[in-house]
Amino acid sequence: MAEWYAVLQAAQETSTAAVRPGVTAEEVDAAARRVIDDAGWGGHFIHRTGHGIGLDTHEAPYIVAGNDLPLVPGMAFSVEPGIYLPGRCGARIEDIVVCTEDGVRTLNEGPRELVELAG
After folding, report:
1. Peptidase M24 domain spans which residues (predicted)?
2. Which residues are within 8 A (CB) of 60 and not within 5 positions of it... i.e. 6 or more apart?
3. Which of 73, 86, 18 has the alpha carbon at shortest distance from 50?
4. Are 32 and 81 contacting, i.e. CB atoms less than 8 angstroms apart?
């Protein structure tokens, strides 16, 4: 689990760094997928990278392949790549971000390191 959790951390950081005006929603999704695919875990990333944050739980902009909507300043959305092993476990690392005039602002700063508990 520690191996693919490190992949998730890299995917989340890479896709967040891709956020800036003019970049499309699908490009942010692709940034996360490249990291996960390159590490050999692509078949276990089974959902979109993120979704808009506003009045509803899930709303546009959807950060997913096929959404060619360009990001504009003020758009707020999640960046939450995940890896899921059927019947075993799964994880995602989620931040809420806002596209700004010159890039991205992350609204939360919670810990991202893997915490291992002895059983």
Report:
1. 2-101
2. 51, 52, 69
3. 18
4. yes
Look at residue 42 in the predicted model and tell me its pLDDT: 97
Alpha helices in 18-48 (DSSP H): 25-38
Which spans in the chain are helix H? 2-17, 25-38
6: which 2 tokens? 């490190």
> Alpha carbon 63 to chain centroid distance?
8
Q: Does domain 2-106 have CATH number 3.40.980.10?
A: no
**pLDDT per residue as tens digits for the range 81-118:** 999 999 999 999 999 999 999 999 999 988 888 888 88
Helix axes 2-17, 25-38, angle to 10 degrees: 150
